[in-house]
Amino acid sequence: MSIVDNDPTNYQLPASPLIQVEHLTRIITNRTQKTTLLHDVTFAVPAQKLLTINGPSGSGKSTLLNMLTGIDKPTEGRVVFAGQELKAQGENALARWRGRNVGIIFQFFQLISTLTAFENVLLALELGGGGGLPRNAWRKRAQDCLEIVDLGSFAHRLPSELSGGQQQRVAIARALANNPPVLIADEPTGNLDSKTAYSVFNILAGLTEQGKTVIYVTHDSQLASYADARINLLDGRIVSAHGTQAIVTAKQEEVHS
Ligand SMILES: Nc1ncnc2c1ncn2[C@@H]1O[C@H](COP(=O)(O)OP(=O)(O)OP(=O)(O)O)[C@@H](O)[C@H]1O
Ligand SMILES: [Mg+2]
């Protein structure tokens, strides 16, 4: 085991990661067998940076994201978000917490096909309570979020009238609607060609300059390498990390499935 921090600049930053993942283990037990999906995963998510979580299919990326959003609970270990342990909260409190703190972006966009881009973003404001804005400011907020992703003039198009990359940008606008500090994206560009994927990656990376912390899951190691901070997973273990503090629990060649 070793503490990794290859980035001297990052090392100088105050030790205040927004999210701290500590010794996270997830074991699923059914009648015949016990499967360990995550083994002792420890890392910090630096605030206002984009962190990529990279690894091949089945390495535990989505399992880990579900722990970060409180959708699933660890078997051992904990996730501490801005000083508060997620596990300690009940389901309703967690759902409220998620609505305020995390915007989630999915691989297949999951826009509502009968609503325009604008209405998809507005719906997020209605469901999330507007992120503290009064109701009469929500329409402007929805339009502003579309402007942030450079889709201001596409507001009245249906998802079927937009390209894949544009649909994903609408999904980013929707995730921004309630102004959460953290955006979490699970393979957001897995369904896009590499050029469009890169532009979506850049939009998300650019949001760190507006104070957002972005967690970006991808199996694309090339794309992951553009991030300032990254961890690599294999078979539920961290095999390498860069630009963030993480405990590497296995070397790539030591991992057996
Ligand atoms: N409920 C479950 N019961 C047993 N095994 C599971 C369960 N859910 C996931 N797994 C296994 O856990 C491992 C990690 O799954 P996970 O979905 O986290 O992978 P991933 O890295 O997100 O993969 P992908 O890139 O394909 O999305 C896989 O081997 C998967 O088959
Ligand atoms: Mg996955």
UniProtKB/TrEMBL annotation:
PROSITE patterns: ABC_TRANSPORTER_1 (PS00211), ABC_TRANSPORTER_2 (PS50893). Transmembrane segments: none annotated. One of its GO terms (molecular function) is ATP binding. Signal peptide: none annotated. It comes from the Bacteria. Residues 19-257 form the ABC transporter domain. Keywords: ATP-binding, Nucleotide-binding, Transport. This is ABC transporter ATP-binding protein. It comes from Ktedonobacter robiniae. The lineage of its organism: Bacteria, Bacillati, Chloroflexota, Ktedonobacteria, Ktedonobacterales.
